[in-house]
Design goal:
With about 240 residues, this protein is α+β, with helices and mostly antiparallel strands. The protein has helices spanning about 25-35, 45-50, 60-75, 145-165, 200-215, 215-235, and strands spanning about 10-15, 15-25, 35-40, 90-95, 100-110, 115-120, 175-180, 185-190, 190-195.
């Protein structure tokens, strides 16, 4: 039975293979992470996806990815590297196959301007005796490298398609920053934007120009964190006034 108060997504790749995703709190994620093993992800995959979509006007840009993830899993966690990243979604992932059900942890975020997937195999009997910090090759008999790549591409495609409906609803202006690469993205003047700025001076000037027109980025982050905390305590969605 699905908890109606928890964000949940069911993706059906084919009849024999199904993906179930539940949003986790950071405390839940931390507890489960202590009983899981990190799995190596194909580092070239996201680069290939980005390059293949580079000239596509409907591509999954960072602002579209963020809003699509929030529509499906609630507001971003505040647990991420604020120098290199701008959002993070901790998830429990269950893989259903004819040979069995397998539990993983999945964290979808961004890293230096690219969408990022972190995957961990959850050991239901605990991880005593295992080094939970060492990255491992996939368990080929249950979730092979090829299947992991197919899963990531499937989620990427789902978010891309979902973004089409996201773009058709009213969107409040917002901005996110990735300081390490001078990347700014968000929504302004009725359009999504994503830009990488050459100099620190121009980067700060662009943030200031946005804040003068729409409000403070720092204030927006504090407001978002406060709403997330209130939602966690009350179990109710907090609407902006």
């Amino acid at each position: 039975m699905i908890n109606p108060q928890r964000h949940y997504l069911h993706l059906r790749k084919q009849k024999a293979t199904q993906y179930h995703l539940w949003r986790l709190t950071e405390d839940e994620y931390r507890q489960l992470r202590n009983s899981s093993l990190p799995i190596k992800i194909d580092s070239k995959l996201m680069l290939q996806l980005m390059l293949s979509e580079r000239d596509n006007p409907e591509r999954l840009s960072l602002p579209k990815a963020l809003l699509s993830l929030e529509d499906n899993f609630g507001k971003s966690s505040d647990r991420f590297d604020e120098w290199k990243s701008s959002f993070s979604f901790p998830l429990l992932f269950r893989l259903d196959k004819p040979v069995g059900r397998f539990f993983y942890l999945l964290r979808i975020g961004d890293y230096r301007g690219a969408l990022d997937f972190l995957l961990y195999r959850l050991l239901e009997n605990g991880a005593d005796g295992y080094d939970i910090r060492t990255y491992r090759e996939p368990f080929e008999l249950e979730f092979s490298r090829k299947e992991i790549n197919e899963f990531i591409c499937y989620v990427y495609g789902f978010l891309t398609g979902f973004a089409l409906s996201t773009c058709n609803r009213p969107i409040e202006p917002f901005i996110r920053s990735i300081d390490s690469n001078h990347i700014l993205y968000g929504y302004r003047d009725g359009e999504f934007f994503e830009e990488q700025i050459d100099s620190q001076e121009e980067y700060q000037a662009a943030i200031k120009a946005f804040e003068e027109k729409y409000g403070s980025l720092q204030q927006e982050r504090q407001s978002q964190n406060l709403r997330s905390l209130l939602e966690k305590i009350t179990g109710e969605a907090m609407t902006e006034k």
